[in-house]
Amino acid sequence: MTLDALSPRSRARITAVDWSLLAADEGKRLRALGIEEGAEVTVAHRGVFAGKDPIALTVGRMTIALRRAHALAMQVEELA
């Protein structure tokens, strides 16, 4: 499942990221924020626009906004 398919308040672990789908500078920024394989994230909430963009993620003690296009590049496993 990709990260964009998670429901609000769902917890997951990122299992893979297809970095080739992201621009090099975007990938670098996401890694600096802790968004990489093995990271545990929680979907805090989704945007109100038609595509449910952006997605707010909690990573550790940070909440960051992530575009749906970026979330499509990330494979996750949902945590209980």
UniProtKB/TrEMBL annotation:
Keywords: Iron. InterPro entries: Fe-transptr_FeoA-like, FeoA_core_dom, Transcriptional_repressor_C. GO terms for molecular function: transition metal ion binding. It comes from the Bacteria. SMART domains: FeoA. Residues 1-78 form the Ferrous iron transporter FeoA-like domain. This is Ferrous iron transport protein A. It comes from Altericroceibacterium endophyticum.
